[in-house]
Amino acid sequence: MRYKRWLVGAALVAARVPSVSATVLLPGDLSDIARGATAIVRGTVVGVRGEWADGRRRIETVVTLQVSETFKGDMSGFVSVRVPGGVMGRYRSVTVGAPSFSQGEEVVLFLGASPPALPYVIGLGQGVFRVKRDVRTGVTSVTPPALLANSARAVTVHRGDPDRRPQTLQQFADRIRSALAMRSRDLRAVERAGERGAGRTPGRQIK
Fold first, then answer.
1. The domain containing residue 191 runs over which residues?
2. Which of 61, 101, 115, 148 could tie 86 with a disulfide, CB 3.0–4.6 Å?
3. Which residue in 13, 16, 32, 18 sits closest to 123, CA to CA?
4. How confident is the model at residue 131 (pLDDT cuts 50, 70, 90)?
């Protein structure tokens, strides 16, 4: 009888939710999402508000961040980011895996962009890293999500993997910059190889 009551309650809750979607995220690593992001910023959440979207068929949350550091891209000042799901009055829209934000918290966001829409967080909650300060030691650490998103391939999750445990802010920043520097070197190597190949093609001019 208790089980039947639970089912009825669950059905009523589901009936009140306008939009529910599921997202499957494969584990990746910090280098993958750093290279795939359009922008990577650290900042403090200064605003969280729900908005109707898609002709009032769903709700999105607009999160405004005061940027304190940019690791990639040219975002500065105040940046607004859209997140699926949210609350508008008595209506709630839920997207499984979407992150939630609180005003005043500090985060690092890995962002994608599809203009003219606002930037979005890569991999839903997988592109959100929480920044915490230990009031006793004064150390600032960055806590990763449970799994990092990578839609291109699946990898094995190893116990003790540094991507799965908190790091100091300096360690985290160094890893991001190292991944981006390696990506830049790889792109330059590909460009040079393409130029050499074009130069060996008869009748083709290198511009």
1. 25-197
2. 61
3. 32
4. very high
Q: Is the dihedral of CA 98, 103, 105, 109 positive or negative?
A: positive
Residue 92 forms beta bridges with which residues?
Answer: 87
Whose CA is closest to 32, among 100, 106, 123, 96?
123
For residue 6, tell me if it sits in a domain: no
Decide if 205 is inside a domain: no
pLDDT in tens, 79-125: 999 999 999 989 888 888 899 999 999 999 999 988 888 999 998 88
The DSSP element (H or E) to which 187 belongs, if any, is helix 169-199
Q: Does residue 173 or residue 23 have the better pLDDT?
A: 173
Residue 201 corresponds to which tokens in the numbers above?
A: 């093609």
Task: Tell me whether residue 12 is in a domain.
Answer: no
In the chain, the number of structural domains is 1
Residues in the chain: 207
